[in-house]
What we know:
The complex is a heterodimer of chains A (198) and B (321).
Chain A: E1 22-28, H1 31-39, E2 50-55, H2 63-67, E3 73-76, H3 80-93, E4 98-104, H4 106-118, E5 127-130, E6 136-140, E7 146-150, E8 155-156, E9 163-171, E10 176-181
Parallel strand pairs in A: 1-2, 1-4, 2-3, 4-5, 6-10
Antiparallel strand pairs in A: 6-7, 8-9, 9-10
Helix pairs in contact in A: 3-4
Chain B: E1 7-17, E2 22-29, E3 42-50, E4 53-60, E5 71-76, H1 84-91, E6 97-101, E7 104-105, E8 115-121, H2 126-137, E9 142-148, H3 157-164, E10 168-172, H4 181-186, E11 192-197, H5 200-212, E12 220-223, E13 234-238, E14 243-247, H6 253-259, E15 278-288, H7 296-301, E16 304-305, E17 311-319
Parallel strand pairs in B: 8-9, 8-11, 9-10, 11-12, 13-17
Antiparallel strand pairs in B: 1-2, 1-6, 2-5, 3-4, 3-6, 3-7, 13-14, 15-16, 15-17
Amino acid sequence: MAAKTIISRPIYGTLSPQPGKHHLFIADAEGALAILDMAKTAPPGFFDGAEIVFIPGPDGKHVAVLEALKPAQFHQAPSFASLLPRLKQTLANAHMGLRLYLAGTEGLIGQAMQVALEAGIDHTSMQTEHRGSLARRMQCVHCKGITENVTTQPATCSHCGLLLLVRDHYSRRLAAFQGVCINAEDRSEIPPTEEAFP
Amino acid sequence: MSTGTTKLNVVVSDVVPVNELVTRFHFRRRDGQMLPTFSGGAHVVVEMRDGDRTRLNPYSLMGSPLDTREYTISVRRDDIGRGGSLFMHRSVKPGLEMVISYPVNLFSLDLRAKKHLMLAGGIGITPFMAQTAQLAGEGGNFELHYTCRTASLGTYADVLRERYDRRIRLYHDDRDERIDLDRLLSTQPLGTHLYVCGPAGMINWVRDRAASLGWPSEAVHFEHFAAPQPGLPFDVTLAVSGKTIRVGEQQSLLEAIEAAGVDPPYLCRGGVCGQCETNVISYDGKFIHNDHWLSEEDHRSGCKIMPCVSRFEGRSLVLER
């Protein structure tokens, strides 16, 4: 569970059914379990007005249980990038009364939130629940390149190769944690690498 | 001192009757300088020196924020209120020197919105006069739905229609025209923000329907200045200042505290901003809460009171003031 360290570090809640006319769920991997838990408290007919967009993890699990909730629409995607055009289209045509629920890894929650923010939804009015990996999406503050699924501290920038301290400093606009060169004074100084975000 | 309690010395430059109930007042700075910048939705607190009595009432600025040569407010006459609006209507004439506060905005536009949906009832139109002017200047996307009792009491409806044409929708009670609220709220594009200003009943209705239809509270903005209600006189002990005071029938608790020479913080004087929130040390009796600031839980707890609009009935009340 993510702990609050500095003010920009996102904290996540527990999904709960909101009043609304349409309910859009975006989840990856174990995020499916957050939807299942929420479904236990949802009023009858809740999923009649729901759309679930799901990116299964490498094990491909949880698809059948989500389909069993009988949402009005169920859409499965291999990656966030592949569902992005569809998500943008859905939000562009949506009306007030649509509620957004994001569940799964921080990378998924952050990137979906980034798109929803651009569509005019306030981040505090989105339901979020973190499940699964703690892997981070990181921006190198030096070359601005994004590295996905960072699990170590420090981590190497996949663009410029600098060794970066992965900070808790988070940007909602970029949907990424900030990585700052850890050995700028002396590049030969290599601190031990830990598996900090399993 | 907070911004809102910094004063501006102004002179009344014009007084314009708008209809049978509403009069518009124009203020300019006595030193001829420009007035401070404000944003649509801001209000000023006007000091009304009426003999030995001073009233301080908040009014929304209704001029364009793009023009700060003068401020304008519109005051609806309230024949059964505490007399502030009657004083404005009867005693304020062009040339009168008055004191007003710096503008404070507790009802500002959220400029991240994709669209601004405005709902006005009666004199609640005033903040929207400034907001629409601000948005029109920036090419903003807005739509205003304005409910009034009759066409002749539709203050500024003609001006708004002239300026913004079909962006303004009018509803007249006497013609039985009713806003189809559920339909309106359900057909707004994602990213719309809702603004409502009018009678308390209208605000509650709109907020309630919006919440039920899935509008997040972050997208719903409202403003209702509660006028302090008259009531039975009551006694209060101010523990910090070591004074015991009596709150008169026509006086607010805040005014009584000020009359006793204590200078508590305040800003809107309408139960909205939270500045004058006061801790209750002990009480024996019943609170009459009229504010929109404290939570229901705070109201039930008996630990806090907003002295600008709320009263008390009972044997004793001790405040941390």
